[in-house]
Amino acid sequence: MQYKNIAAHNADVEISFEVKELEKAQELDPSWKLDPQLLCSGNGTKVKGGLGPFGLLVLASKGMQEHTAVFFTILRAKKKHLVLMCSDQSRSSLNLKNDLTTYGAFVDVDPVHEELSLRSLVSCNETP
């Protein structure tokens, strides 16, 4: 879903995902370090497939040269599912002087019994 021509200086977007077919989640490889930031950045390509990544592209330029991805990936561990949440700033700006760090965390959500919710507050307020 794409929203165009948002003229407000602030946007509040909330989206929920009900995840089905959890058996499709990629199994967590024991050789991967349980470092969520590492999984979201350089190793993020290893977790594509199964259930994820899915989420939002925010602050996207018209041609998508600049955008920030905020997304989930669900992994299958031995006795439960792990939900990895990532915020990827690596393509958020063409200005390489900006912080382009990718952040990640495992979130305490059980996708078997709960929806995954994501709320993004975007503010264009400038500070002096």
Automatic annotation (TrEMBL):
Q: Which organism is it from?
A: Mucuna pruriens
Specify the Glycosyl hydrolase family 32 C-terminal domain's residue ranges: 8-122
- Matches recorded under Gene3D superfamilies: Exo-inulinase, domain 1
Which InterPro entries does the record associate with it? ConA-like_dom_sf, Fructan_Metab_Enzymes, Glyco_hydro_32_C
Query: From what superkingdom does this record's organism come?
Result: Eukaryota
Name of this protein: Beta-fructofuranosidase, insoluble isoenzyme CWINV1
SUPFAM superfamilies in the record, alphabetically? Answer: Concanavalin A-like lectins/glucanases (SSF49899)
